[in-house]
Amino acid sequence: MKKLFYTAFLLTLIIAGYAFISTTPINTRAKLGEKLFFEKILSKDSSVSCASCHKPDFGFADTSAFSLGIHNRLTKRNTPSVLNMKNRPYFFWDGRAESLEKQALMPISNPDEMGLPIQEAIERLNKNETYKKLFINIFGTKPNAKNLAAAFAAFEKTLETGDSKFDLAFDNKGKLSAQEERGRQLFLSDETHCFDCHKREDFTTDEFKNIGLYDNDQSTDKGRFEITKDSSDLGKFKIPGLRNIALTAPYMHDGRFKTLEEVVEYYNNTSAFVSNPINIDETVEKPMGLSKQDKTDLVAFLKTLTGKKQAAKIKK
Ligand code: HEC
Ligand code: HEC
């Protein structure tokens, strides 16, 4: 009897919870964008949504080196986080999209990702009464390519994280541990030069740099060069921001490093990993000579960059 009571109680809770979620009104571009971000009908066979690869529980990145699109096709590069995109001047590892609006429609039509021509995506949304109404209420017009892109961009611009342990310490509202503080000092130092590239509020200067992974042998992705065809851009990739970095393994454009320890090991002596790098940036060319302690300190610092909301998600 008791068991039955609890089951009934639980069921009521679930139904009430569901009713709450389903009645939370979608009345802004950002909320519509959020719904669309999880919408599988935007892929050819309705099997994949943006969130299939940009997983909310993992800093909106993926947990494998390459992600699965429709028909189990693999992406050509590692899926980056879409957190903290608001202040980025361009998108993708090679920077080929200049705005979130321009970026948003590309994965839908990309044959390795969602594989649905934009025209078809718009037709599907117009045939769906719920979406048609939502677009008319929010944009004053039926779904079209422009307002679809605007909705995605509006949602993504809400995904800012500024409440990490690092931020609290920076605002004198908290404190880094001695180890994290040593890591921070190292990060800023001329020994590591991390801060030359991973600078400003999101830990990126938004430039393209080559950290020595490209050798046109083991690694053939030419990065920024594919866009500019300028030989000085060979092997350069967008400097990724480092907020929530503890959640977004594996790392680099090809997801080659599984842990932050491996990343630090790489920077400490890049030539031990890639013997004939092409066009490597001189700041990361020479061995840094970090001690074991230095390396763990650096990793401890990187782990302070996780936003609170994201941290809570991962602990579940
Ligand atoms: C099949 C996996 C997959 C799906 C589905 C997918 N993405 Fe991505 N996303 C990626 C990969 C891989 C990249 C990096 C590609 C590159 O740089 O060449 C990326 C890059 C991005 C970026 C740029 C991030 C940065 O740091 O520059 C944004 C923003 C983004 N995706 C948003 C979206 C949106 C919005 C959707 C849904 C409409 C979506 N993605 C669907 C895999 C996916
Ligand atoms: C010369 C500029 C430069 C310097 C110096 C530099 N980085 Fe990077 N960092 C980059 C670029 C560019 C990438 C992306 C490279 C790629 O994927 O090919 C990157 C990638 C990373 C990543 C992986 C990010 C992800 O989302 O996959 C981490 C972590 C990282 N760097 C930490 C550091 C640390 C710690 C230091 C100092 C020891 C450092 N970086 C020094 C430019 C730099």
Quick rundown:
The chain has 2 domains: 133 residues, Cytochrome c-like domain (Cytochrome Bc1 Complex, Chain D, domain 2, Orthogonal Bundle); 151 residues, Cytochrome c-like domain (Cytochrome Bc1 Complex, Chain D, domain 2), CATH 1.10.760.10. Helices cover 41% and strands 1% of the residues.
Q: Which SSEs are present, and which pair or pack?
A:
Blueprint: H1 2-23, H2 29-37, H3 50-53, H4 100-104, H5 106-109, H6 118-127, H7 129-139, H8 145-156, H9 165-170, H10 178-188, H11 194-197, E1 208-209, H12 225-228, E2 237-238, H13 260-268, H14 292-302, H15 308-315
Antiparallel strand pairs: 1-2
Integer-rounded radius of gyration: 22 Å
CATH topology descriptor of the largest domain: Cytochrome Bc1 Complex, Chain D, domain 2
Indicate the CATH architecture of the largest domain: Orthogonal Bundle
Shape: globular
Strand content: under 5%
Main β-sheet, spatial strand arrangement: 1-2
Structural class: mainly alpha
What's the rounded overall pLDDT mean? 93
Oligomeric category: single chain
Count all strands and give the number.
2
How far apart lie the N and C ends?
Answer: 31 Å
Describe the fold and architecture.
The chain is mostly helical and 316 residues long. It folds into two domains: 24-156, Cytochrome c-like domain (Cytochrome Bc1 Complex, Chain D, domain 2, Orthogonal Bundle), CATH 1.10.760.10; 165-315, Orthogonal Bundle (Cytochrome Bc1 Complex, Chain D, domain 2). Helix content is 41%, strand content 1%. The chain is built from 15 helices and two strands. It has helices at 2-23, 29-37, 50-53, 100-104, 106-109, 118-127, 129-139, 145-156, 165-170, 178-188, 194-197, 225-228, 260-268, 292-302, 308-315, and strands at residues 208-209, 237-238. Strands 1-2 form a two-stranded antiparallel sheet. Helix 2 (29-37) packs across helix 8, helix 10 (178-188) crosses helix 14 and helix 13 (260-268) crosses helix 14 (292-302).
